[in-house]
Each structure stands twice: as structure tokens, then as C-alpha cells.
Amino acid sequence: MADPFYITTAISYPNGRPHIGHAYEAIATDAIARFQRLMGRDVFFMTGTDEHGLKMVQTARDKGVETPALAEEMSGYFRDMVAALNISCDRFIRTSEPAHHAASQAIWRAMEASGDLYLDRYEGWYSVRDEAYYDEKELTDGEGGIKLSPQGTPVTWTAEETWFFRLSKYQEPLLKLYADNPDFIRPESRRNEVMRFVEGGLSDLSISRTSFDWGVKVPGSDGHVMYVWVDALTNYLTGLGYPDDTENFRKFWPADVHIIGKDIVRFHAVYWPAFLMSANIPLPKQVFGHGFLLNRGEKMSKSLGNVADPIELAERFGVDQLRYFLLSEVTFGNDGSYSAEAIVSRCNADLANSFGNLAQRTLSFIAKNLGTLPTGGRSEPADTELRNQIAQITRKDVPAAFADLGLSQGIEAWLRGVFACNQYIDAQAPWALRKTDPERMNAVLETLVRAIRDLAIAISPIIPDASARLLDQLNAEGRDYAALEDEQWYDRLAASGFTLAPPTGIFPRLEMPAEA
Ligand code: ME8
Questions:
Q1: 45 lines ligand 1 (CB under 6 A)
Q2: Is 243 touching ligand 1 by the criterion CB < 6 Å?
Q3: Residue 85 pLDDT > 70, yes or no?
Q4: Which of 279, 232, 230, 276 is CA-nearest to residue 254?
Q5: In this structure, which topology does domain 340-495 adopt according to CATH?
Q6: Nearest residue CA, atom 22 of ligand 1?
Q7: Is 289 helix (H, G, I), strand (E, B) or coil?
């Protein structure tokens, strides 16, 4: 039985259309999910929309529509984005689903049964934009006497009767969790932030609201709906069938990794494990807080008018091009910047001019001059050297980096392999050998075709469609990482009499945008 691997993105607020930050998270998570599948793991990958809470209610009110209608329409755009960006999720969850209400009520009852819930009056600061409660000591003064959260969003004074969760009881168990599992929160910088926050003391958390009714009803407590984060975090369980003892729940829980943005690490690394401990449910193995994507170095906001539509970017530059750009440009965990110019220049340099050109000139030369795959050429040490280098990169360096969520590091290793091939092709000049030394040319071309196939497999989690098209041209049989160990594929294919059709280019050169 393949080893199970459960990975999730955050679920997005459908109070607007998806932006490039949402696309980035979905793409990065998809690359990891695809990588694990190609490593032979039995993967369950979930994403979706987080539809409750005051932010949704207020946005709907401002737009003059009903909240469920807003959720329905906007959730559809997130689903469209998932399809448009080739995101291979196994489940798209919506928190408005009845099954999710049932799961949230079940975890609530489990926390109640542990004696961790009590009714009291909440008075304090709340940020609707973050859907978060903040302590007075965390706030700063903004313009016009407005108080701001650590995320820079306005907070308002809230006072109502609510249910509380005894978060304070979990301060020590949480600190022990972080100490015993240094990889529970990654990257390191976020782990330090969380530890400092928890060491500073935890107040009990208000977990229900009475001033609006758009949410999951608190069981046995009329007039209360759950604080949106209680139900939102529970989505990770709902998707596997909790509270029923389903096959998926037994197989995939606890999650291997929750991929989220840095602004919501506190919810995932403090509240979520505390809720789970209280409900006696095993904890996820890891929470990874990626960085933020900035438009030309500036924070994106609707008022600045610089919120890019990811579907438009993908249509303009190509889905794989957008994926490649985002995952190579930004070190996973750090913030990064994007612009049309940066997408064009990176994709042209790495994909069109380096990998695409390597494949195109090699395969079209063979198609034109030989038709079938060359065998029995006269090998020289340079061939073995390249083969060893490509084997090291595709079988060791790339998978080791991807397995550790080092997406850009894996891509860098891959690119070193592409450059090595281009150097080899220039040094060996097979075109010149055609007349002077065809036996030597055959060995060079064979070495190149093998390398191109290996590089196409290794990079396929990042650019799945382009890799598949290239592997189709080669009629490649095995396409997972185990296939990289199979060195006989070439001989079998050549012996089958396979003829290479004139290849079509996989990576068109992109035009530099005229406007800035
Ligand atoms: O936080 N760059 O939803 P959300 C990169 N519903 N990532 C970004 C980003 C940016 N500019 N802006 C947002 C929520 N994100 C909650 C999550 S999970 C149980 C509930 C990331 O729509 C953000 O960090 O505001 C989060 O991981 C995801 O996009 C959804 O953000």
C-alpha cells in the first residue's frame, strides 16, 4: 500500500475574486502534491472556500446582495481558478456544505466534553478584515484615532455574550509541542514568532458570535454561531469525512502539511493544535507559512488597483509559464515580487531559450536527419559525465529539494542540468558530426535524448502540461520519479522502431509587454 500524504491549502474567503496570492498558494501546494504522487505516495489534496464570518456578511451588505448568493458566486470563481491553473486537488470544499456544519458541531461537542468551553461576556478588539481578536497590547495607533492590528487592519470594539475556549490551558502543551517537533512550524522565522507569542501568555478565546447569524450554529445554544475560524480550521477534517470513522479519515489524518500564508500562522499553529488537543484528535505534522506576493514590491490592494487576476496572467503568458515563474522566482517561505516583465524575462531565459531550445534543436535534428532514435554510437567520457550529472540532479538533488518544500531550490538544481546539457551540445556540436563522424553523433544524440526525458520528468510537478507534451513527443512510458531509475527505456523505445515526428515547440518566446 502506498504511503498516504495529505496536503491542504488555506481555504479562501470568497468575498472577492481570487488574486495572485491565492493562485500562488494553490500552485505551490499543487506542485508539492504532484511531486508526492510522482514519488508513489497516495495523495489527498484539498482546497476550497471559507464562506462564513462577518467579513462575508459585510461585503454582501455593501454589494447589496444576500450573503449565500455572494458566497455561491465568488466560490465559483475560485473553482474556475483551480481548473484554469491545472490544480490537481482531490476535493474542493465549501464550508457552507451541510457535512461541514455537522463536522464543526462534532468538534465543538468534543471540546465541550473536555470541559474547555464556557459562556461569558467578551469585550475587546476585533478586526473584521482579519476575522481576528487582538489584545490591546498588540495594537498600534493609526490615522484619525483608529486602532490598528499587527496586520495593519482596523479593529473595532466588540462586546457581547459569547462562548469561550480555554486556550490558556494549552500554553504549556503548545510550547512542548513546538519543542518536541522543531518542524511543526516552518520556516524557522515563523516558528520563532509563534513561540514568542505563546510564551507571552495566552488568553482564553471568544469562539462564538451573537450579533449575526451567518455561520455554523453552536449546538444547544440558540442565537450563537461559531467564530469563523473554529469552523474554517475544521474544514481539514470535514474533507476526510469526520466525524464519521471513514476510510479516508483513517488513512489521511493527521495531515502531512497545511500550506498557508504567513498572516494566518497563529490560527494554524496555536488555535488549531489547541482545538485538536482538546477534542482528542491527533495533530497535523506540519504547518508551512509561505510568504506574500507583492506587485512590483508593493502590497496589493484594491485601492491601489494593482490586484492581478491570475487567470488573465495565465491566459496571457501560459499556465506553466506562470507556475514556473512563481515557484522559481520566490524562495518558498519568503516574500516575492512579480511583474509582467519579470515573468517574460524568466520564462524566456529558462524555458524558451534554455530547456525549450535544447529539446527543440535535439529532437528536430533527429526527426529531420534520422527519423528513428540513434543507437550504438561511439561513446566518450563526456557522455558518461553528463549522464552521471543528470542522474544526480534528477534522481537526488531535485527530489530532495522538493521533498523538503524547497521548490525554488529544486528548480535551480534542474536548471543546472539544463545548462549542463546546453554546454554539452555546444561542445559536442552534433550537427557538425553528421558528415564527419556519424557514430559519434549518434552517441551524442542518445545522451541528449536521455537527458531531456529525465529533465522533463524531474520538472513535471512544476510545469505538468509542458512536461507531458514533451514526454508525449518521446512516447515516454514511465513518467514518475521511479522511471528515472529505468535506464532501459531508451533501448526499448529505439528497438520498437519508434520514429520521432518533427516536434512542435513547447515554450513559445513571450513578448515583452509594451506598457509598464
Ligand atoms: O485567510 N500573497 O483567507 P484569504 C501570498 N479564509 N499569499 C496570500 C496573499 C498574497 N498577497 N494574500 C493572501 C483566509 N494570501 C482564511 C483562511 S484556512 C482554515 C482559512 C494567502 O482568502 C493567505 O495567507 O484571506 C491564505 O493562506 C490564503 O491566501 C487565503 O487567504
A1: no
A2: no
A3: yes
A4: 276
A5: Isoleucyl-tRNA Synthetase; Domain 1 (1.10.730)
A6: 12
A7: strand
Q: Which three cell numbers stand for residue 405?
A: 518544500
Instruction: Please work out whether the CB of residue 11 comes within 6 Å of at least one atom of ligand 1.
Output: yes
For residue 514, name the pLDDT band (cuts at 50, 70, 90): confident
Alpha helices (H) along 39-97: 54-63, 67-84
Sheet holding 205-206, edge to edge: 132-134, 117-127, 156-165, 205-206
* Domain residue spans of the chain: 340-495
pLDDT at 94 over 80: yes
Instruction: Please give the Cα distance from 111 to 117 (Å, whole number).
Output: 7
477 CA to middle of ligand 1, Å? 39
Which residues, in sequence order, are CB contacts of 140 under 8 Å at separation 6+?
A: 147, 148, 150
Q: Which amino acid is at 346?
A: R
CA–CA gap between residue 382 and residue 349 (Å, rounded)? 25
HSE (side-chain half, CA atoms, 13 Å) at 416: 13
CB of 201 closer than 8 Å to CB of 222:
no
Residue 160 has phi, psi (to 5 degrees) of: -165, 165
Per-residue pLDDT tens digits for 208-262: 999 999 999 999 999 999 999 999 999 999 999 999 989 999 999 999 999 999 9
Q: What is the pLDDT of residue 2?
A: 85
* Helices and strands (H and E) in the chain: how many: 21, 16
pLDDT at 515: 58
Determine the distance separating the centroid of ligand 1 and the alpha carbon of 25, expressed in angstroms: 8
Neighbouring residues of 383: CB distance < 8 A, sequence distance ≥ 6: 443, 444, 447
479 to 471, 482, 485: CA distances (angstroms): 8, 8, 11
pLDDT tens readout for residues 279-305: 999 999 999 999 999 887 666 555 555
Collapsing DSSP states into helix, strand and coil, what is residue 173? Answer: helix
- How many residues are listed for the chain in this entry? 516
What are the tens digits of pLDDT across the range 168-196?
999 999 999 999 999 999 999 999 999 99
Residues 6+ apart with CB under 8 A from 32: 7, 257, 259, 402, 405, 407, 461
What pLDDT does 141 receive? 94
The angle at the Cα of 267, spanning 26 to 405, to the nearest 5 degrees, equals 40
What is the grid cell recorded at 70? Answer: 455572494
Contact 382, 427 (CB under 8 A): yes
Residue 279: CB within 6 Å of ligand 1? no
